[in-house]
Known about the structure:
Layout: H1 7-12, E1 20-22, E2 25-27, H2 40-45, H3 48-67, H4 71-82, E3 89-93, H5 101-105, E4 113-118, H6 121-130, E5 136-140, E6 153-159, H7 168-177, E7 179-190, H8 196-209, H9 218-225, E8 229-236, E9 239-245
Parallel strand pairs: 2-5, 3-4, 3-6, 4-5, 6-7
Antiparallel strand pairs: 1-2, 7-9, 8-9
Amino acid sequence: MNTGQDPFxxxxxxxxxxxxxxxxxLDVLGESASSPVPTVAQKAMNSTVxxxxxxxxxxxxxxxxxxxxxxxxxxxxxxxxxxxxxxxxLLDVACGPGNxxxxxxxxLPAGGLAVGFDISEPMLARAVLDNxxxxxxxxxxxxxxxxxxxxxxxxxxCFGALYxxxxxxxxxxxxxxxxxxxxxxxxxxxYSGQAAPxxxxxTAAAGVIGLTMFDRHxxxxxxxxxxxxxIEQQTQRALQFVTAAKPG
Length: 248
């Protein structure tokens, strides 16, 4: 639990030795990071231009069209679902420019710590500039192998990114692994439960730019098979919001 200490030092204590602080965030990858050939969408998320406009223009517009839910409403829903008032450590996977990390951090109790985690240097640089705070630390790493011990965080989330990422189900299992007993998990991702003509059109368009469309059962079944309970799912247009808890 944070007792007024530097969030960088608190977060460094959760990471393997060798995490380097640069550009305002902690980096566990360095220059040696390797990943599959990026899709069009992944290239966009690593662009300094997209990082600059993402929070104020790209995401609010695109996600409202996809779900009919405003960013502010999303943030309130996320904070309530994660029960942040009782959480001390929050992990925001694929945090981008921190557009959810910082608002969610404000819901943590005194002494809470929010860790925003992403692989994109431009996004993290923007997060440090726009969404820093006294209880926030950003970390660069690969979500397919989260560099944290089991059961480290009271709340874990990933909003609007799993459909972009290689091995999304592996990443979801990693999120469950680092969730503490009694903790809450929440994801916002794509949804392919529309009528057949619309579903085929969405899936085809998503495939062109490298997005994965998930059906109604993908993450509900994953969370259930991982032993999570109180699983709830909301679907809106092309997005689904799924929450669950790890038994205490």
